[in-house]
Amino acid sequence: MLVAVACERTTAQTATADPAPDLVLSGDVTGAQSKTYFEVPFKVPSGKHRISVDFRYTAREQRSVLDLGIADPMRFRGASGGNKSHFTISETDATPSYLPGAIVPGTWRLLISVPNMRPHVVSHYTAEIRFDARSEETGFADRPLAISKRWYRGDLHMHTAHSDGSCLSQSGREVPCPLFLTVQTAAARGLDFIAITDHNTDSQFDDIRELQPFYDRLLLIPGREMTTFHGHFNVFGVTQFLDWRVSPGRHSLNEVLRDALAKGGLASVNHAQAPEGEDCMGCGWAPAADADMGLFSAVEVINYGVIMFSSANYWDSQLREGHRLAAVGGSDNHNATTPPGEPGSIGWPTTVIEADELSVAAILSGIRSGRTFVDLTASRDKTVDFAAASGGASARMGETLQVAENAKIQVNIHAVAVPGSTAHLYVDGVESSATPTMHLEGADADVTTTLTAAPGRHWLRVVVRDDAEKDQLISSPLYINFAGK
Predict the structure, then answer these.
(1) Which residues, including other chains, have CB under 8 Å from residue 161's CB and lie 6 or more apart?
(2) Is 328 helix (H, G, I), strand (E, B) or coil?
(3) Which is more confidently placed, 2 or 214?
(4) pLDDT per residue over 98-127, tens digit each?
(5) 328 vs 341: CA distance, rounded Å
(6) Cα dihedral value 148, 14, 50, 206, nearest 10
(7) Does domain 2-137 have CATH number 2.60.120.380?
(8) Pick from 100, 346, 78, 133: which is nearest to 205 by CA?
(9) CA angle at residue 186 from 182 to 187, to 5 degrees?
(10) Which member of 87, 165, 447, 457 has the lowest number of beta carbons within 10 Å of its beta carbon?
(11) Is residue 436 scored above 90 in pLDDT?
(12) What letter does residue 199 receive in the DSSP assignment?
């Protein structure tokens, strides 16, 4: 007996991580059906790009066994037997045992096998069907990998065989570098999260969905590098197709960005000040004049793909225009076996993000909130944070402080694991001549300085340098008199 129940979603339900199912299929299996197969049909509407299934049944304690598979209107899409009670299938990725591909509208069928059912036993099954589940669109982990508010460390720019990543094979030939090596290396280096950002493709997501359950201390964030003729940018938190082809008569950059944001993504400008030319076509950032930089949340301030170079001047130019953009970094790794410290080595530099937990949503929220800094030393313990106060109000890095003209602003900088280093306060992109170099004594250091507020809008940021005057840590800005919070 089969019962199919269509479930209407409410606005409140769609806002939850696990909304009510769109469809519930249920029925009873009797002992007479032991060692048989049967199908449970259900309708998939047009316009869907992901199906997620949760399957359960009773009488397991009586050794009842129901095995699961699925077929679309045209072909078999996989079978997981009895080893998975949940699976998802989309255009770009699928739970292992299942095939990714277009979600064809029409009649799909659950394929149920009955290896064992005792003669007088009845087992009741339920299959919950969800379409376009957002929780599975934006990440691959079914729960946060850590639950604590702290600084998490990762690499937000890397490439594999799914674009132009390469490494040496067992016999020493240069071959496309398999994605698992990137993940394995990142885990071995103690990173908390990575985003594999292959160029303009989404084929990497199927591999990542297979690997995430095993790497349960390393968050794998969906990412891709949108490679246009006039600059590159990363999009994080989207598994759906994004059309990168920015050109007259096809798509504007703003249209591509709005599509990414509508699908839950976050965009970050890559290597904005990279040399432009035939050796790196489109690498320098030169978008059309009407590009809306307010659609971006971050700038890759440090890139170490060939040499470690900064795009801080571009970053400051956008902050000067009033855009709130967090600092991130990226190794731009193209070879997972590159030794630590060499150009393009995984985790070098490290992007450090304060987040409430280790999940895609929390990490992206940390970037949007500007709670980030870049660690050029790829350490596991160095941190920098700072706050400002004036007239009874205060703000932390990433936040906005509203200040009256000529008011005093007290800035407190807190740095960990950088003894003997110096903190340098930048105002509007320039190291402030009004504040002396601040020496950081001890493993846990606090230093304070005072500024006088000039008229208008300003931003502060901090650079920590070692005793050789080499940059170690670069903070995101704290905003003075910017619009918004």
Answers:
(1) 175, 176, 177, 178, 179
(2) strand
(3) 214
(4) 999 999 999 999 999 999 999 999 999 999
(5) 18
(6) -10
(7) yes
(8) 100
(9) 120
(10) 457
(11) no
(12) B
DSSP letter assigned to residue 365: H
Q: What is the mean pLDDT of residues 29-47?
A: 98
The amino acid at residue 475 is: S
Residue type at position 410? Q
Give the number of C-alpha atoms closer than 13 A to the C-alpha of residue 22, restricted to the C-beta side. 15
Q: Which residues contact 468 (CB under 8 A, 6 or more apart)?
A: none
Site of tokens 């930089």 = 293
Q: Which has the closest alpha carbon to 374: 403, 401, 343, 353?
A: 353
Coil, strand or helix at 67: strand
Q: How far apart are CA 383 and CA 171, in angstroms?
A: 42
CB 184 within 8 A of CB 221: no
434 phi, psi to nearest 5 deg: -80, -10
3-state secondary structure 426-443: EECCEECCCCCCEEECCC
Amino acid at 436: P
* CA distance linking residue 281 with residue 98, whole number of Å: 38
DSSP 3-state of 207:
helix
CATH for the 381-485 domain, from 3.65.10.10, 2.70.50.30, 3.10.580.10, 2.40.128.270: 2.70.50.30
Residues 372-409: pLDDT tens digits? 999 999 999 999 999 999 999 999 999 999 999 999 99
Domain 138-378 has CATH 3.20.20.140: yes
Q: What is the pLDDT of residue 282?
A: 85
Structure tokens at 148: 């604590």
- The number of C-alpha atoms within 13 Å of 256 and in the hemisphere containing its C-beta is 27
Hey, where are the domains in the chain? 2-137, 138-378, 381-485
Q: What is the pLDDT of residue 19?
A: 78
State the residue for tokens 């570098």.
Answer: 177
Per residue in 16-31, pLDDT (tens digit) is 356 799 999 999 999 9
Q: How confident is the model at residue 281 (pLDDT cuts 50, 70, 90)?
A: confident
Question: What is d(CA 86, CA 66) in angstroms, rounded to the nearest whole number?
Answer: 14
- Count other Cβ atoms within 10 Å, centred on residue 195: 27
Task: Read off the pLDDT of residues 221-238 as tens digits, 9 standing for 90 and up.
Answer: 999 999 999 999 999 999
